[in-house]
Structure formats: structure tokens, C-alpha cells
UniProtKB/TrEMBL annotation:
<feature type="transmembrane region" description="Helical">
    <location>
        <begin position="123"/>
        <end position="144"/>
    </location>
</feature>
<keyword id="KW-0472">Membrane</keyword>
<feature type="transmembrane region" description="Helical">
    <location>
        <begin position="33"/>
        <end position="52"/>
    </location>
</feature>
<feature type="transmembrane region" description="Helical">
    <location>
        <begin position="150"/>
        <end position="171"/>
    </location>
</feature>
<dbReference type="InterPro" id="IPR008564">
    <property type="entry name" value="TVP23-like"/>
</dbReference>
<comment type="similarity">
    <text>Belongs to the TVP23 family.</text>
</comment>
<protein>
    <recommendedName>
        <fullName>Golgi apparatus membrane protein TVP23 homolog</fullName>
    </recommendedName>
</protein>
<keyword id="KW-0812">Transmembrane</keyword>
<dbReference type="Pfam" id="PF05832">
    <property type="entry name" value="DUF846"/>
</dbReference>
<keyword id="KW-1133">Transmembrane helix</keyword>
<feature type="transmembrane region" description="Helical">
    <location>
        <begin position="58"/>
        <end position="75"/>
    </location>
</feature>
Length: 204
């Protein structure tokens, strides 16, 4: 019985179509307008704050302009870009008894949708985390340089952007209950390691 032998030098066609398609989907921006405005207002607020002394001598005009940009950023990130770019949403609801309830939602997506929105998620979380850190730097620089009149504006910037960051982190983690469980688990594990490993070292 003869067996067909395949020559090692024979050309073999390889299919790279799936890999190229996956790479394209990972790099694709599905909501370019939302992605643009996710960064536009917060970056504009930072640029305007830094260049206020150069562009205008009016403190009130700069204060109002930066505050409006921060307000537009808070509204757009909370109500539009978070829902479109990463499928997360948070808001406050008041029931019939007058009690306030914070609701944190995360959209269930298929693996195809996750691959398609990976680039948008990167942009979303990068902008959400980096910009509040920049405002914290502004806070200390204003404090140490004794520019106390800007502190109210800087605190407003930290508060508005940190509120969105906190809300979306809760959405990502599944709400306050899950964060409490994760925190409790981390603390218990830390205490256990602190108490257990020194005993092993003493026995050795």
C-alpha cells in the first residue's frame, strides 16, 4: 500500500483572513463622533485653564468658560459616551417613597461586539482616568503657588470628573455590593498573609 508523500519544499497557502479581520475590528472606532466628544470637552477645559493667563485677563470669563466645558463634559460622558463606547450607564432614581437609589448598569455584549469596541474602550478609560489626575496636579500647583482664586474651579473639575470615574467603575464592577465584597476579600487575604507568613518564617 503506497502512501502519498508531501514534499517539504512545496508551497502551502495560509489563510490570514481571520487574523487580519480581528486586528481590523480591534482597531476600529465604531462611534467616531462620541469618541471625539468624549475627549473634546475635557481636553478643552484643561487647555483653556492652562492658557487663561495668555488668552485673556478676565478671571470671570475664564472661570465661566472652563466651568461650562466641565459641565458639558460631565453630561456627555454620563449620558452619551459611556453608553455608546463601553455599554455602561449610571444614574439616580427616586422611588415613590422619596428614597434615592443609585443604579449602575452594564450591557451584556457578545465576543464579536467586545472585539469591535476594544479600541473605543481603551480611549474611554484612558480619558476617564488621566484627566482627573491632571486636575489633581492643578489643585496642588494652585495651592502651593497661592493662586487660591482658582481652587474653586479646580475642585469643581476634580469633583465632576471623579464622579463619572467613580460611577463607571461601579458599573464595571457590578455595583457597590460587589466592590464591598472585593474590598473585604482583599483585606481578609492581606490580613491572612500578614499573620500566616511570619509564623512560617519563625518555624524555619
Amino acid at each position: 500500500m503506497k502512501q502519498a508523500l508531501v514534499d517539504d519544499t512545496e508551497d502551502v497557502s495560509l489563510d490570514f483572513g481571520n487574523e487580519e479581520e480581528l486586528a481590523f475590528r480591534k482597531a476600529k472606532i465604531r462611534h467616531p463622533v462620541a469618541t471625539f466628544f468624549h475627549l473634546f470637552f475635557r481636553v478643552s477645559a484643561i487647555v483653556t485653564y492652562v492658557g487663561c493667563d495668555w488668552f485673556s485677563k478676565s478671571f470671570v470669563g475664564c472661570f465661566v468658560t472652563v466651568l461650562l466645558l466641565l459641565s458639558f463634559d460631565f453630561w456627555s460622558v454620563k449620558n452619551v459616551t459611556g453608553r455608546l463606547m463601553v455599554g455602561l450607564r449610571w444614574w439616580n432614581q427616586i422611588d415613590e417613597d422619596g428614597k434615592s437609589h443609585w443604579i449602575f448598569e452594564a450591557r451584556k455584549v457578545s465576543p464579536d461586539m467586545v472585539a469591535a469596541t476594544e479600541a473605543e474602550a481603551r480611549v474611554f478609560w484612558l480619558g476617564l482616568i488621566v484627566c482627573p489626575m491632571i486636575w489633581i496636579v492643578f489643585f496642588f500647583s494652585s495651592l502651593f503657588s497661592l493662586k487660591l482664586k482658582w481652587l474653586a474651579l479646580v475642585i469643581a473639575g476634580i469633583s465632576l470628573q471623579a464622579a463619572n470615574l467613580y460611577g463607571y467603575v461601579l458599573c464595571k464592577m457590578g455595583g457597590e455590593s460587589n466592590i464591598s465584597k472585593v474590598t473585604a476579600s482583599f483585606l481578609s487575604q492581606t490580613v491572612f498573609q500578614t499573620a500566616y507568613f511570619p509564623r512560617q518564617q519563625r518555624r524555619k
